[in-house]
DNA sequence: TAGTATCT
DNA sequence: TATG
């Protein structure tokens, strides 16, 4: 059964990072996590924990707690500023984002083999004219994308280590999520799991 | 300044 | 940024 074409504004680039590039990226992310440890966010109001663990790098980081979703300059656990975005990711943004200002946030999501991400939209950014640029590392996942309304039809496909995914244009506010992780599908991370990096421009224009 | 990336 |  053949899938419909990707919606306009979606760009999936298989294997943007080769193995060496992925290894270098993981080293950079390890340095970020050493300074800004992964933590488990909670849902607004209910306090229900996410199944993914998160951290950020860049001047701003996306956080969620009982008070809501927001971007803030400090790690909610350590109180320290987020580390800088690694150069290789700034370079990636320059090559694929088609946006005249640098990203301000790089959200780092770690999925263990049971983690999921429910269908949602990235809409906490003022700069909705800038795309969201995503990098997959480690185990593959089943990714799902729909339209601007939660009820719009969805399609899904696998994202593998080294893939780059750009959510922009008419699809910038498309609902998307991660249905499942495929454990053991990559040897990049010794202890398994998937890391997703999403680069965002938060403020307009800059 | 009112919804939410939780969850079945 | 809980919030009524």
From TrEMBL:
A GO molecular function held by the record: methyltransferase activity
Name the cofactor(s) required for activity, per the record: Fe(2+)
Task: Tell me the organism.
Answer: Kaistia soli DSM 19436
The record places domain Fe2OG dioxygenase at 102-203
Q: Give the PANTHER family listed for this entry.
A: ALKYLATED DNA REPAIR PROTEIN ALKB-RELATED, NUCLEIC ACID DIOXYGENASE ALKBH1
Phylogenetic placement of the source organism: Bacteria, Pseudomonadati, Pseudomonadota, Alphaproteobacteria, Hyphomicrobiales
What Gene3D superfamilies would the database entry show? Alpha-ketoglutarate-dependent dioxygenase AlkB-like
This protein is called what? Alkylated DNA repair protein (DNA oxidative demethylase)
Q: Name one GO biological process term.
A: oxidative RNA demethylation
